[in-house]
């Protein structure tokens, strides 16, 4: 017989990692949004346009680094929440099964049946 074992400590550790990665993504998004790159990058001909273009890639639009980091942070927040809820659900299921076994060990019934 095969058994599936869920380690709630590992789920909690994974949730903590997801939360830390989310925080790091938020910090990166804030830094990208406030990056001082634009036409003032250089007064040399051509470099001002390069600064403007790089600034757009970092700050503006749906594919910009700041937006990607913001989206990533939201996904990581969801993963963190879901891992915590999964861990809580497994723990509740474990507690319920343990309670049912305790009742059965003391001679009680863990369910009622309409069949007699």
From TrEMBL:
Lineage: superkingdom: Bacteria
Protein name: ESX-1 secretion-associated protein
Organism: Corynebacterium yudongzhengii
């Amino acid at each position: 017989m095969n058994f599936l074992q869920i380690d709630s400590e590992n789920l909690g550790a994974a949730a903590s990692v997801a939360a830390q990665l989310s925080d790091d993504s938020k910090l990166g998004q804030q830094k990208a949004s406030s990056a001082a790159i634009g036409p003032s990058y250089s007064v040399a001909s051509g470099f001002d346009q390069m600064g403007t273009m790089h600034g757009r890639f970092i700050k503006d639009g749906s594919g910009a680094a700041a937006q990607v980091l913001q989206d990533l942070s939201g996904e990581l927040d969801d993963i963190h929440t879901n891992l915590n809820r999964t861990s809580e659900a497994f723990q509740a299921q474990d507690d319920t099964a343990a309670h049912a076994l305790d009742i059965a060990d003391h001679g009680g019934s863990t369910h009622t049946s309409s069949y007699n």
